[in-house]
Amino acid sequence: MIAAESHIDIIPGMAGLLYLVFTLIFCTMIYTCIMFLLSAASFWIIKSNALHELVGSIERLIEYPLNIYNLTIRIILTTILPFGFISFYPSQYFFSFEDNKPFIVCIPVVALILILLSRFVWKKGLQTYQSPGA
């Protein structure tokens, strides 16, 4: 962001820096929960490596702005695999895109939902887990 700042007209100020720290924390939580949920899927899916590879391919889509994709991809990257909340929506704060303000505000809510979902899936997985060993 520091390198890009010299090439674009963004002056974050104190509010922007606080927002950056705030979103870094919540975006890290979101990403960690997504990866944790994928790993927890191995309780039910024997060959979960394929699932990790599929999600890794989908994850590469967030290297570009979500608004270049069709509506279906945007919905998937916002709701089912909320990678959009890791990169696209937080960056919209600095570009003042009004139509994405609700998503910008929802970042902590998405993090909380994913934390609760991760905990639930982990507990369910532990209940159904059977050791492959003797």
From TrEMBL:
<keyword id="KW-1133">Transmembrane helix</keyword>
<feature type="transmembrane region" description="Helical">
    <location>
        <begin position="102"/>
        <end position="122"/>
    </location>
</feature>
<feature type="transmembrane region" description="Helical">
    <location>
        <begin position="17"/>
        <end position="46"/>
    </location>
</feature>
<dbReference type="Pfam" id="PF06182">
    <property type="entry name" value="ABC2_membrane_6"/>
</dbReference>
<keyword id="KW-0472">Membrane</keyword>
<protein>
    <submittedName>
        <fullName>ABC-2 type transport system permease protein</fullName>
    </submittedName>
</protein>
<keyword id="KW-0812">Transmembrane</keyword>
<dbReference type="InterPro" id="IPR010390">
    <property type="entry name" value="ABC-2_transporter-like"/>
</dbReference>
<feature type="transmembrane region" description="Helical">
    <location>
        <begin position="67"/>
        <end position="90"/>
    </location>
</feature>
